[in-house]
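[agent] plan:
  1. take the single chain provided in the ticket
  2. run structure prediction with default settings
  3. attach structure tokens to the ticket
  4. add a short note for the reviewer (M.T.)
[agent] executing step 1
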Amino acid sequence: LGLWEALDEVGGSGRPEADGVIVLLTDGLPQGGTEPDVAMAARVARELNLTVFTIGLGADVRPLILEIIAG
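[agent] step 2 finished; step 3 output follows
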């Protein structure tokens, strides 16, 4: 999942005093995982105090998934 990759990139890097932010461009269709996997990755992002912004792309955007990711 793209969100897991983003979490790997953000985790432990950057300035400690800076807010952690992920901007995820997606159609909301999980690739390499399931909807529960997406929810788990989103939960981990929140546990790490990361803010996730989602931007839907394409004609088949799944808004509910984007809302789950962004919290």
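[agent] step 4 note for reviewer: The mean pLDDT is 89.
[agent] ticket updated
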